[in-house]
Amino acid sequence: MQKSGQNPSIQRYTLTAMVLHWVLAVAILTAFFVGLTVDDMPLSPAKLKLINWHKWAGISILLLSVLRLLWRLAHRPPALPGSIQQTMPGWQTKAYHATHHLMYLLFFVVPLLGWAYSSAKGYPIVWFGVLPLPDLMPVNKEIAESIKELHGLAAWGLIGLVALHVAAALKHQFIDKDGLISRMLPGR
Predict the structure, then answer these.
(1) 93, 99, 111, 126 - which has most CB atoms within 10 Å?
(2) Which of the listed CATH numbers 3.80.10, 1.20.950, 3.30.70, 2.60.40 matches domain 15-184?
(3) What is the model's pLDDT at position 20?
């Protein structure tokens, strides 16, 4: 007997895609909230530690995003089940695709803007305190402030899209009860 919210005909993502999805989700949310926290802290050793952690997370997110994009290009994601495609309004299908494309774009834009900001500010990034990364641009404090603002706006845009993505997944799980969310959950 089929439980509510399960659909045996739904094709699932690969385990690698699932792991990349959930690791990136946790990393992005954590980096975002650390960034918010650091912004309001007075200068201290704790703030400097969190700033470095935020930078390391950003570079890790960038690298994981490259892996995720390469995996996705090499492994086509499962199509939406026909039953869902038939009942989903056209605007939702367009929003589904647009949200995914914009999130992928911002997976790269947000960390690259953070890296550019750090470079323009004159603060090098040494990934995990071991690997010095090249500066993306020369030191320019005025440009750094503009880049910092863009980095923040892009991060808020990404979090907004993540919230929309989560809301849509929850709608499918609890309102539509179509089991769509099971495509990205490990297990059976």
Answers:
(1) 111
(2) 1.20.950
(3) 98
